[in-house]
Amino acid sequence: MPYEKLPVLEVDGKPVAQGNAVAPYLARKYNLMGKGKWDDLICEVLVDTLEDLDQGE
């Protein structure tokens, strides 16, 4: 397990273990990012905000 951290996503047999990379990858793969670059940016802002809130506990 890379970096001994979760989450881990396996892509083409290779593990990826950074949530900030995994989330946008999956959102793009499953067409959840929005309809343009602005929507993409807002989605990434929301993911980062949730991480900030989680670290504040």
SSE run: EEHH
Total number of helical segments?
2
Q: Give the overall form.
A: flat
Distance between the termini: 26 Å
What is the residue-mean pLDDT, rounded to a whole number?
Answer: 85
Specify the helix fraction band.
Answer: 40-55%
Can you tell me the residue ranges where pLDDT is under 50 for at least 5 consecutive residues?
Answer: none
Biggest beta-sheet profile: 2 strands, antiparallel
β-strand percent reads 5-15%
> Can you count the beta strands?
2
Radius of gyration: 13 Å
Write structural notes for this entry:
It comes from Bombus vosnesenskii. InterPro entries: Glutathione_S-Trfase_N (IPR004045), Thioredoxin-like_sf (IPR036249). This is Glutathione S-transferase-like. The chain is mainly α. It has one domain. A two-stranded antiparallel ribbon has the order 1-2. β1 and β2 form a beta hairpin.
